[in-house]
Design brief:
This protein has 398 residues and is α/β, with parallel strands linked by helices. The protein has helices at 56-64, 82-85, 88-95, 105-115, 178-181, 186-197, 201-214, 233-245, 262-276, 291-298, 317-329, 348-358, 376-397, and strands at residues 5-8, 11-13, 16-18, 23-24, 27-28, 33-35, 38-40, 45-48, 72-76, 100-104, 120-124, 129-132, 135-141, 151-155, 160-164, 220-223, 249-256, 280-285, 301-307, 310-311, 314-315, 335-342, 362-363, 368-371. The protein folds into two domains: 5-244, 4-Layer Sandwich (Metallo-beta-lactamase, Chain A), CATH 3.60.15.10; 252-393, Flavodoxin domain (Rossmann fold), CATH 3.40.50.360. The chain has 13 helices and 24 strands. Bound molecules: MU-OXO-diiron (FEO).
Length: 398
């Protein structure tokens, strides 16, 4: 269970911690996650977002520790995805089905589509405000960050941004604020960006420009997952600016799978070649690393080498999984090379190059393929491929 946390005068975090979740639609959540919801008390009491369906009772119990849920006058839904709206029907049933439900126009459409329910929708757009007593809620649509219905709610007088998924992290710990956990939270935020928002980096850049133009004072950012940024909210905005620019670092990732360790030997030789050029490198075996951790390392890597044996005229299934996942997230500004061992047909390298081409990666070599077990000469070619990849990256960065 979770007790409500006071985050400012009359404002509480009333969501739930999901300690057990380890797979969030294909993203590994080794430390669980939270579904944050917020209660703002005043002349009218306002609930911002709900939680996953199975935590509906817990949400209502948390609210009940502060006020009777029936005393909530208005609900705001920043995002339709069911980790934030699953408990909405149950919550509205208790709060009162006719109470106003503020959301974006797409939010109204998507909530109707999910729940076949006609709530008392009040559709709002960017710049619309809701004045309640001495508090003003200002809405900012953030379409495709990361759903068409996504929006932010900004509480003007308290300078608090309720940012939905943006700036979140999948982390369920015993801390609630950035000043309690410090920089330990940054790898979680980075993984979240790489796996949820990277695809929409152009929109993130536009949003940062828009918010900068608006000169919005932000004292606190309350995302719907993980800790609240109250000590230094500008830090996570600066990190989003950096990550969304997708500027390559002097770093490579070597990703591989192997049947009989031949492709492993090739991967190690390529890694040695990259290191010999003083380029940082991560060697990631797809049997040992989850696709979402591989994606996190790809975020800032300037170079990628992918190796797969040929299996039944194709690439290995786990490599296909990773390539499909990476392609969907649209990483940019990468240089790439493929490698792999084979028995008799040897299509894997060609298929990997086609995947690189589809992702608009700069393919710096046709790749290295080796029949059965690599000899010294083959491993030397792999080492040279690593050197070539590293040199190409350094030249690109110079
Ligand atoms: Fe946390 Fe898009 O839901």
């Amino acid at each position: 269970m979770y007790k409500p946390i006071k985050i400012a005068d009359g404002i509480y975090s009333v969501g739930c911690r999901d300690w057990d979740i380890r797979d969030f639609h294909g993203y590994s959540t080794y430390e669980g996650t939270t579904y944050n919801a917020f209660l703002v008390l005043g002349e009218k009491n306002i609930l911002i977002d709900t939680v996953k369906e199975k935590f509906g009772d817990e949400l209502l119990s948390n609210i009940s520790k502060i006020i009777d849920p029936k005393e909530i006058d208005i609900v705001i839904s920043n995002h339709t995805e069911m980790d934030h709206s699953g408990a909405l029907p149950k919550a509205m049933h208790v709060i009162g089905k006719d109470k106003p439900l503020y959301c974006s126009k797409m939010g109204a459409k998507n909530l109707k589509s999910h729940f076949k329910n006609d709530f008392n929708f009040k559709a709002v757009g960017s710049g619309d405000t809701l004045k309640v007593g001495n508090r003003t809620f200002s809405f900012l649509e953030t379409k495709m960050l990361h759903w068409p219905d996504s929006m932010f709610t900004y509480l003007v007088e308290d300078a608090i941004l309720f940012s939905s998924d943006a700036f979140g992290q999948h982390f369920a710990g015993d801390m609630f604020f950035d000043d309690e956990i410090g920089d330990e939270i940054i790898p979680h935020a980075r993984k979240y960006y790489a796996n949820i928002l990277l695809h929409f980096s152009g929109r993130v850049q536009d949003l940062i420009k828009d918010v900068t133009k608006m000169n919005l004072k932000i004292d606190m950012i309350c995302p719907d997952h993980g800790i609240i940024w109250r000590d230094n909210p500008s830090k996570i905005i600066q990190l989003y600016d950096k990550w969304s620019k997708q500027e390559p670092a002097k770093k490579a990732v070597v990703i591989f799978d192997s049947m009989w360790e031949s492709t492993t030997k090739m991967a190690r030789a390529i890694t040695s070649g990259i290191e010999s050029e003083d380029v940082k490198v991560r060697l990631m075996n797809t049997r040992k690393w989850h696709r979402s951790d591989i994606m996190t390392e790809i975020l800032d890597a300037g170079a990628i080498a992918v190796g797969s044996p040929t299996l039944n005229n194709g690439i290995f299934p786990v490599i296909a999984d990773v390539m499909t996942y990476v392609k969907g997230l649209k990483p940019q500004n990468k240089i790439a090379a493929a490698f792999g061992s084979y028995g008799w047909s040897g299509e894997a390298v060609k298929i990997l190059n086609q995947e690189f081409a589809a992702m608009k990666f700069d393919i710096i070599d046709e790749g290295v393929k080796v029949q059965y077990v690599p000899e010294e000469e083959d491993l030397s070619k792999c080492f040279d491929l690593g050197v070539k990849l590293a040199k190409a990256l350094k030249e690109k960065l110079s």
